[in-house]
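Troubleshooting log. The previous structure file for this entry was overwritten by mistake, so regenerating from the original sequence record. Sequence copied from the archived sheet and checked twice against the printout by T.R.
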Amino acid sequence: VTGTYSYTFEDIENRPVAVIGAGTLGRRIALMFASRGGTVRIFAPRAEQRNSAIRYVMETLPKVLAQRDFGDVGGAIGAGSLEEALDDAWLVVESVPEKLEIKKATWDQIDRAAPPGTIFGTNSSSYPSRLMADAVRDKTRLCNTHFYMPPEANAVDLMSDGQTDRGLLDTLLRVLPEFGVHPFEARKESTGFIFNRIWAAIKRESLAVVAEGVARPEDVDGMFKVNWGVPAGPFQMMDLVGLDVVLDIENHYAEEFPHLPEHVRELLQSHVDAGKLGVKTGEGFYTY
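Regenerated output below.
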C-alpha cells in the first residue's frame, strides 16, 4: 500500500534504526543514526564485532557532535538476533560483505523478521537493490542507500529497485539530512549509482598507472593532494576501505563491462593474496 513508508522526522525520531553488519561501514552508518539522541541497534553474527562497533560509535559520537551544530548523543546497542535488531525499527540498513549471494540470504532473513512499515535500505556499493529484491515480498519497501565514509564523507546515493514507493524515497530525501548525511537520488538504475561510478573510473586509472610502472601510489596520491587540496588520494582511500572490498567491487564492474583492463584487478589480487588489505591488516599500498 503506497504511503505506508512515508514519515516525517517527528514520526521517527524516537524509533530505532537497525544496522545489519558491523564492519568499517556498518559502524560508521550506525554512528550517524545515533547522532540525534535515538537508538541504533547493531546486528552482526559475532559478539566481538558488535562490541567493537558499539565502542567505535560511543567513542566517536562526541567528536562528531562537537564539529556539528546540531544533534544529541544517542545510544548504540548490540542485538543478538535480527528480530531483536528490527523491533519497531523505522529503517534497516544492510551493510554485509559485497557478495550478492550473502546479500540475498541476508534480505531473506530480514524480510521474515521485519515489522510492517520498516524501510529497507542496502548499503551495497555497486549492486542495484533490484538484484536483492527476489528475497523481499513487498518490493516497494526496498531501495539502495549507499553511504560513503561518514562522518567525513557524508553523501548517500538513493536508488529505486524499480518498484520502490515514491513516498519512501521522499521520506529518505527529507529525513536523512537530520542525521547529518546528504542524499542524492539516481534517477535511473546505474551500477555504481552517481558518484561511485565516477570514483570507480578514478580508482581504475590510478591502479593502471601503478600497474604499468608509470608512477608509485604515493606519486598519484601526492598529485591529488597538491592539485585538489584533498586530505587523501585514491590509494590512501582504497587502503581505508579495504583492498578486498575494492577488488570485489572492481570484479563486479568487470562482470558487467568485460572490456575493463585485467591488470588493474591483478594488482589488487596480488595484495589480497598476500594478506595486505590496507589499514585493517596494517599494510596495503602503504604500511600502517
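The chain has two domains: 17-186, 198-281. Archived copy saved in two places this time.
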